[in-house]
Specification:
heterodimer; A: mainly alpha; 7 helices; globular; B: alpha+beta; Thrombin, subunit H; 2 domains; 6-stranded antiparallel barrel; 4 helices
Chain lengths: 168, 284
Amino acid sequence: MRRALSLAAVIVTALLLQTTVFGDVKLLGARPELMYLVTIVFAMIEGPSSGAIAGFAGGMAQDFFMNEPKGITALTLTLLGYVVGLARQYIVSPSPLLPVGLVAGGTFVGVLFNRFVAFLLGQLDTSALYVFRVAALSALYNAILTPLLYPVLRRVAEGSRSRKIVRW
Amino acid sequence: MALPSRARSTRLLVASLVAVSLVTITVDFREGEHGPLASVGRVAMAVISPLQRAVSKVTHPIGNFFSTLVRLPSIRDENERLKDEIAELKAQVSTGLADEARLHQLEALLGVEESLGPNVQTAAAQVIANGVSNFEWTITIGKGSRDGIAVDQPVLSPAGLVGHVVRVAPDSAVVQLAVDPDSSVAGRLDVSGKTGLVSGQGNQDMRMGLVDTSTEVQAGERVVTAGFRIPGVAQSLYPPGILIGTVSRVLPSEASLEKFITVSPAVDFSGLDLVLVVLTDGAG
């Protein structure tokens, strides 16, 4: 329950920031993709199943604010959360830059996948060049935001774990 | 044995979430704006729009300030004007002169409203949020069905055509901008009077298609809405004579059946604050 509430709070906050502040403050014409960032960070910290759940919930929430068939972002982020969560288990790098790299790579691949699904549904009405450009720019923007948002999200994720302290 | 079964349950979870997503896509694709999912979307809009209103009230002036700063180096000619603007924005932020700017905007909107004619009903609305995606060009305005806003109503600003309403909640509405690739507007070239279809191209200039190759077109020519009306058959969404933009490029295309014309939009879509929604066109 506690986890569901904090996940909901994170998703609503991400949607709000995405549509207000980051609608105005763009990087070379591109917004960040905050919901991708949230999904990837949750998947890194909590593993593949929590990553998939966070991605599904966040993606579905975002879908309801778009004019495309709902579910495309949910599908993208479910898979993204699962894959990043799985990949994290096999990476042993202690580098503090690991989250930044995973967020950048994950966002780039995720946006391309999302647009590919939209293309299959006949919903892609921008050029492939624009898709690549935006995927790269939003990945870069997300990477820049990661050092700021990662500690916050980690605190939320860890704070919402059930607090059964076993003493012996 | 604990680990494999956990991995199996994770895979099952992911498979079911993917299945739910695919079902949602299919249902929404078939039902469109009339299905149950669209009503859930309206509820979501109704829930989040008060929050968007509150947040953008605080962040919009700051965001505008930053986006003005970012554009500064690329526009040498406008350097001076932008400096003035920044000074003005700074002053507005610090001394609360925003009210006066609001008054000027409202006066400009009043001018637009009067130019539409006496029978046209309009509503001025505040922009409370931008679109959520990099692949859609929309804004959310702070008025909805309670104020008489309905789908397909045209939206204008003092500078020209903004777009049209695509989704409505009780207290907010989503406006698809004229630069959205899904948007097409019947446009008329100011000098020759020839009509064509102006389609959005996202961040690039709009394209004007279906213009005959024999038409004389000059860069800098104004393009306005055609606002056609065939009584009882079809009617354009937009009132006639609203400025869409100016012709930015004309490419000679001898072999093609239509001229290649790009149109630079009259409205600065990144800085929209107050817009005017046309509720009725006075016809009927």
